[in-house]
Q: What sequence folds into this?
């Protein structure tokens, strides 16, 4: 695996990636290397400016993953809830939700599930 040098610049707005060179100036990354690169870039993005908005921007479209695998589990030590979602682009993402947030998520999903979907041509 080839090591990349990544640096978050002092302006907190730019990540510099230094690629090692070879005779052909190519870089082959296996799945583990791509995952490590994505993880490191994600860590930098969390520190960069402008920040990711605190709420999902109204009307924004974004790439979606259909019906991903997921799992939940209790955090017996702190009383939180683990939410794991499998994203084929980024692997298993783990979120730690407070009990309040987990309850709100469950209620929101239930409410959204009960909404009758719009079907073209049906009144």
A:
């Amino acid at each position: 695996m080839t090591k990349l040098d990544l640096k978050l610049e002092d302006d907190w707005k730019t990540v510099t990636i230094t690629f090692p060179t070879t005779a052909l100036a190519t870089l082959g990354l296996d799945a583990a290397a791509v995952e490590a690169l994505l993880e490191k870039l994600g860590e930098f993005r969390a520190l960069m400016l402008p920040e990711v908005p605190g709420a999902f921007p109204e009307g924004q479209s974004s790439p979606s993953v259909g019906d991903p695998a997921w799992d939940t589990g209790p955090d017996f030590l702190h009383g939180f809830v683990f939410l794991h979602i499998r994203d084929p682009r980024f692997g298993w993402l783990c979120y730690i939700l407070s009990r309040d947030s987990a309850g709100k998520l469950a209620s929101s999903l239930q409410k959204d599930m009960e909404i009758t979907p719009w079907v073209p041509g049906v009144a």
Q: What stands out?
A: DSSP finds two helices and five strands in the chain. The first strand starts at residue 5 and ends at 8.
